[in-house]
Amino acid sequence: MLELDQLVMDFSGFRAVNGCSFNVGQGSITALIGPNGAGKTTLFNLIAGALKPTGGTIRFLGEDVTGASSDVLFHKGLVRTFQIPHEFHRLTVLENLMMVPPGQPGENLFSNWLSWGSVKRHEADVERKAWETLEFLELAHVAGQRAGELSGGQKKLLELGRTMMTDAKLVLLDEPAAGVNRTLLRKLEEKILILNRERGYTFILIEHDMEMIEKLCHPVVCMAEGRVLIQGDFQTVRSDARVLEAYLGE
Ligand code: ADP
């Protein structure tokens, strides 16, 4: 689904990503791990189109998308969520979901005047999808609450919900476990697994929570100094001496 070939990213002379290559298979949940400064966030920025690589190529669903903008990638089904959930905190939880689908006819003044009926129908479809998403995430009871009042874990669930309002195929999750209490963490894991197994989402996670990685992820890709150190199943990667050494040198 995603092919990274010899990616390089330089920041004014400093090489943050240094010849990084790996593939992500359709239907997988890939964990990206590695010590601080390994280049994980920069790699996410390259994959999601927030940065243009200095070198190398990125292919998504067989198409060369190297240097494509995040907007173009979003429309192709590659969606990134952020480490800090960026919900609109004054809007309700339901409104936060309803505003995600791009290019809604009600956004356009002329279509509002000329085809009011179809605008209303479209809005009703979006609202139905938002409610389905809230039911799935077990957030329906907070639908009318301002998103800013949610707990950290609920915000992560909402962030996942926002990706479900798009036609996402590949979802990049930035530290989904960070700041989430254990109960909501189990729920978040369960929802990610259902989205993967039953709804065909492919995920790449930057994550430090080893329990979550062990439960959800295969393969695990460990980066160090801007490139892939080792990739494989959780046990193989965790017990590799080079991985231990990379973390000790952090
Ligand atoms: P990780 O997410 O694995 O902790 P990052 O991708 O954030 O690693 O950073 C990799 C390296 O690139 C670090 O040494 C970091 O300081 C450097 N870096 C990241 N972004 C920039 C930037 N915009 N300008 C200069 N250096 C950067």
TrEMBL record:
Keywords: ATP-binding, Nucleotide-binding, Transport
UniProt-recorded Gene Ontology molecular function terms: ATP binding
Pfam families tied to this protein: ABC_tran
Source organism, top-level taxon: Bacteria
Listed name of the protein: ABC transporter ATP-binding protein
Keyword Membrane recorded: no
Family: Belongs to the ABC transporter superfamily.
Record organism: Roseibium litorale
PANTHER family: CONSERVED COMPONENT OF ABC TRANSPORTER FOR NATURAL AMINO ACIDS, CONSERVED COMPONENT OF ABC TRANSPORTER FOR NATURAL AMINO ACIDS-RELATED
InterPro entries the record matches: AAA+_ATPase, ABC_AA/LPS_Transport, ABC_transporter-like_ATP-bd, ABC_transporter-like_CS, P-loop_NTPase
Domain ABC transporter: 2-250
